[in-house]
Amino acid sequence: MATAPIEPPRRLVRAIGDAPESPARAWLDSLPDRVAERLAAWELTPERVHEPGGRASLLVLVTQADGTPAALKFPLPGRPGAEVEAAALARWDGWGAARLLRADPDSGALLLERLRGGVSLRSLPEAKALLEAAGTVRRLWVPPTDGHPFETLAARTETAVHLLRERAAAVPSAAPLIDEAVELRRTLPTDAPEEVLLHGAFRQGKVLAGHRTPWLAVGPRPVLGERAYDLVGLVLDRMEDLAAGTGAAAAARRRVGKLADSLEVDRDRLRAWTLVGAVEAGLRAVSADDRARGELLLEFGTWL
Predict the structure, then answer these.
(1) Which of 71, 105, 138, 146 is the most buried (most CB within 10 A)?
(2) Phi/psi at 54 (nearest 5 deg)?
(3) Domain of life of the organism in this record (predicted)?
(4) Could you give the residue ranges of the DSSP H alpha helices within 67-194?
(5) Does domain 119-303 have CATH number 3.40.1710.10?
(6) Are 181 and 297 in contact (CB under 8 A)?
(7) Full-prediction pTM beyond 0.90?
């Protein structure tokens, strides 16, 4: 019996928009056919589309021919890291991250081990979540193999600086902070103490409960660089809770210190990368018309 066509979740549809000529829209429109082709080729039985899902991928929960549950993922082409996600997952081979079962380079499809998608580290109290996050991300920091396809943080410098400058005009009051972020983004990669494989988008919401091990990372945007870069998302996690309390600036600096010390990362470099990350995320939020969040992120940058 033929299965009904897969319908992309509304969050993904809204994120891509309806511009008929865009490559992203063309990819979205082709998804039902792409999914049907992979289901047949890999002998998968679809259960349901994961909702609400992400803004840059489609995830279909499936059952393999032997009855083992899995997840079929289609990353949005052109998203940073999409082309090398399979290579990173293969390098980790289930150590700290969801295991890659199969990959199809033509369609970009990834068949992944099934995790408990509704349970992330954000479901834990903050102290416990940070402890588990630190233990998980530490496993991902491995040297790249010969002939690897991964870009470096240094290679992304000019693009990152251009975006900072391009978006700065929307928040003229933050000009000194943005200038500091630009200078740090230029200089930090030039004297990095190491170059290891990074998750690239690590935060509490990217670590899900597993079955063979308690917690596993998902959704990497792999890049080569220093470990401090991978901790920025953890410093910024639950920043609203910090902002709502007293002594927010001191609490933010304490978080930097605790994370740096627990993972043997230089405090000053983590502080610097976090300032860059807060400014980048703040300007991105402002450009997406989420000014309240954007201004909070920029304020977080001043606390550092």
Answers:
(1) 71
(2) -100, 180
(3) Bacteria
(4) 85-92, 126-140, 157-168, 175-187
(5) no
(6) no
(7) yes
